[in-house]
Specification:
Elements: E1 5-7, E2 12-18, E3 26-32, E4 39-41, H1 48-60, E5 70-72, H2 78-81, H3 84-91, E6 94-97, H4 99-110, H5 114-126, H6 131-142, E7 159-160, E8 174-178, E9 187-191, H7 198-201, E10 209-213, H8 238-252, E11 256-259, H9 268-289, E12 294-295, H10 296-302, H11 314-333, E13 337-339, E14 347-350
Parallel strand pairs: 4-5, 5-6, 6-7, 10-11
Antiparallel strand pairs: 1-2, 2-3, 3-4, 8-9, 9-10, 12-14, 13-14
Helix pairs in contact: 5-6, 8-9, 9-11, 10-11
This protein binds zinc ion (ZN) (2 copies).
GO molecular function: hydrolase activity
InterPro entries: Metallo-B-lactamas, RibonucZ/Hydroxyglut_hydro, Sec-metab_biosynth-thioest
Organism: Streptomyces lydicus
Length: 351
């Protein structure tokens, strides 16, 4: 096991905690020193190797896990929130998360196992998914198999993260920014302290640093799908939320971004511009595809992905349909697409 710890100066460190069998490689867990002890931003995937790496990383920063005062979670995904329960158990640290993601954690923990499959089946049927795609889900439902995700054992947070407010961290100025889109309760955390390295930050140093979670990454476009709430009545617009959140982060223009994957980077505004342009291009391509009426499934199949549709694995196709639906909802909200009246499964066309 190699521990990759980076000293970002000014009482900020990052620990690269591995995510098993995942092309992302690792989660960058950040450690922030405060007058009451170190606080973690995210914790990493719940796996013995990842735990050992986290423990070794905290030690390399000059602390013991038992010293940890608190845990701030950017969003509920298992590569960020996975080890929170273990950290709390080992240290007594509190765990804080935005209420909208805490609601997801609670729902996942309490859901009857078949509930997710029922939701997925209903959703894919409405999208016009072919029979051969639905059959495995029906079989799993009949066999009584549920959704087995690490999220079912995830820790319930002890406190909320209030957007816009300074967090109660003695000796630090850290403000929460609600950035929904990737998840409904995603937050970025803005360290409103002058950047400690003038040579990196330049004139922007006074605008501090941003812990961006999965919201803003240097070389990856975060997945924007649906919020996957079985009670969602098609009212949410995650892509719209995401683009709004991106613009707000761009206006903040922090001197440096400390994301939860890949590496730290400068020029947040430039990266925000690239991501907005990417989604705008995607939306206009989708609108072009809808000159011919299509179901959501047909739209997903016709869209551009990182590989041809027939090479996309089964589970990833479901994720692709969610992403297609997020884009479609945005087009409908903007008045650029509409449902063909009376169509079943629902068919959409450009307006
Ligand atoms: Zn995520
Ligand atoms: Zn992530």
């Amino acid at each position: 096991m190699t521990t990759q710890v980076t000293d970002h100066r000014g009482g900020v460190w990052s620990i690269a905690v591995p995510i098993p069998d995942n092309p992302l490689g690792h989660t960058l867990v950040h450690l922030l020193e405060t007058d009451r002890g170190p606080v973690l931003i995210d914790t990493g995937w719940d796996d013995p190797d990842s735990w050992d790496t986290l423990v070794a990383g905290v030690t390399a920063c000059g602390y013991a896990v038992a010293d940890l005062h608190g845990v701030l979670i950017t969003h509920h995904h298992p590569d960020h929130h996975g080890l929170s329960a273990k950290v709390r158990e080992a240290s007594g640290a509190w765990i804080a998360m935005h209420a909208a993601d805490t609601a997801v954690v609670r729902r996942t923990r309490e859901a009857e196992p078949g509930r997710w499959l029922d939701y997925l089946l209903a959703k894919l049927t409405a999208a016009g998914a072919p029979e051969d795609h639905l059959t495995p889900l029906r079989e799993a439902r009949t066999a009584g198999r549920g959704r087995r995700l690490p999220g079912r054992r995830a820790a319930l947070p002890d406190r909320g993260i209030e957007p816009g407010e300074l967090l109660d961290l003695p000796g630090r100025r850290l403000r929460a920014l609600w950035t929904p889109g990737h998840t409904p309760g995603h937050v970025c955390l803005h360290l409103e302290e002058r950047h400690p390295a003038p040579e990196t930050a330049g004139a922007a140093g006074g605008r501090g640093r941003l812990f961006s979670g999965d919201h803003l990454l240097p070389g990856i476009t975060p997945h924007i799908g649906l919020y996957e709430d079985p009670d969602d009545r098609e009212s949410t617009d995650p892509l719209g939320d995401y683009l709004d959140s991106l613009e707000r982060v761009g206006r903040l223009a922090p001197a440096e971004v400390l994301p939860a994957h890949q590496h730290a980077f400068t020029d947040a505004e430039g990266r925000v511009g690239e991501l907005i342009a990417h989604h705008e291009e995607r939306l206009s391509k989708l609108r072009a595809l809808l000159r011919e009426p299509r179901t959501l499934w047909q739209l997903a199949v016709a869209m551009e992905w990182n590989r041809p549709w027939d090479r996309i694995p089964y589970g990833s196709r479901n994720i692709a349909v969610s992403e297609a639906e997020a884009h479609l909802r945005r087009l409908v909200k903007l008045g650029h697409a509409e449902r063909v009246p009376g169509s079943d499964p629902a068919t959409y066309r450009a307006v």
